[in-house]
Amino acid sequence: MSEHVLVERSGPLQVIRLNRPEKKNAITRAMYLDMKAALEEGDADESVRCHVMLGSPGAFSAGNDLADFLAVATGGEGGQEVYDFLLTLASCRKPLVSGADGIAVGIGTTIHLHCDLTLATPRTVFSTPFVDLGLVPEAASSLLAPMVIGHQRAFALLALGEGLPAQEAKAMGLIHGVVEPAELEGEVFGLADRLAAKPPEALRIARDLIRGPREHVLARIREEAVHFMERLKSEEARSAFMAFMSRK
Predict the structure, then answer these.
(1) 66-73 and 215-232 helices cross at what angle (nearest 10)?
(2) 64 within 8 A of 27, measured Cβ to Cβ
(3) Does the residue 122 lie in any domain?
(4) Deepest in the core among 140, 167, 183, 228, taking most CB within 10 A?
(5) Domains contained in the chain, number
C-alpha cells in the first residue's frame, strides 16, 4: 500500500483511510489500486466483517487527481485503475460504512452511493462538477442518484454541478446521518461495530436483498466508463483541465 492510503484492522473492521491531506485527498492512480486491493483482501478475509472508509479532517476527497486526468487528456495512458476500483466497490461482498467531513467532490461524492451507511458533518458538501470539466458522471451515479434522490435533484447534482449540503443529503436519503466533526469517527465506528456483531450470513443475505441485483449497476459503470474515457480525451476536457491547473 502507498503512504496515501492507510489500511488498518480494528477488530472485525477493516479501515481504509485516504491520507493525502496536503492535496485534500485527491485520488491518484496508485491510490485507486490500493483501495481496490484493500477491498478485495478484506472481502476474502473471514475475520473482516465490515469495511470502513474515511478521509481526513475537513476533506473526504477533492476527487480524482486532475494531473492524472490531464496526462490522459494530452495523450498519456491511464483510467483503467479508476474503472477497476469502481467495479470492485460495486461488487463488494461485505458492508461498507463511510464518514465524510468537509470536501466531497466527484468520486468523493459518488463513492458513498455504494456505501450502506454514510455519516457526514454539517460542513460537508457533496458536489460533482463532471460536466464543468467536460466529463460525465461515473460510479453508476447516473443510475443510483436518481433512484435515491429523484431525477431533478440528481440532475442538479450531476449535470448542473450544484452542491448538496449534508443536511439536505440526509433529508433526501443520500446519507444516513449528520454529526459534529469531533464525533464523526466514533459514530462511524459505532455503526460498523454494530454491523460486525450481527450474524454474518443473515446480514449478507439481507444486504443483497436490499441492494438488489448488481448486474445493472455494473452495466451502468461500464456504459459510463466508455463515455468518460471518450470525454477525457476531448478538447472540452483538455481546456477545462488546463484552465484549472493554470489557476492553481
Answers:
(1) 70
(2) yes
(3) yes
(4) 140
(5) 1
3-state class of 26 per DSSP?
A: coil
Whether residue 144 contacts residue 217, with contact meaning beta carbons closer than 8 Å, is answered with: yes
Confidence of residue 144 (pLDDT cuts 50, 70, 90): very high
Give a yes or no: residue 136 inside a domain: yes
Identify whether the C-beta of residue 47 lies closer than 8 Å to the C-beta of residue 82: no
What confidence tens digit (pLDDT) does each residue in 191-209 have? 999 999 999 999 999 999 9
Give the C-alpha separation, 182 to 119, whole Å: 12
Structural domain including 102 reads 5-202+213-247
Q: Is the pLDDT of residue 91 over 70?
A: yes
Helix residue ranges per DSSP H, 134-214 = 141-149, 151-155, 166-172, 184-196, 200-211
Q: Is residue 207 part of a domain?
A: no
Report in angstroms the alpha-carbon separations of 46 from 34, 37, 94, 191, 220: 20, 16, 10, 19, 30
Closest CA to 114 of 137, 129, 94, 84: 94
Angle at 149 between CA 84 and CA 177, to 5 degrees: 85
Look-up of cell digits 466508463: 225
Q: For residue 102, which of 163, 157, 32, 14 has the smallest C-alpha distance?
A: 163
Q: Which of 100, 48, 95 is nearest to 195 (CA)?
A: 95
- Exposed, middle or buried, 247 (CB in 10 Å: 0-12/13-18/19+)? exposed
Which amino acid is located at 224 in the chain? E
CATH label of the domain that carries residue 43: 3.90.226.10
Distance (Å) of CA 168 to CA 153, 159, 163, 165, 224: 11, 18, 10, 5, 26
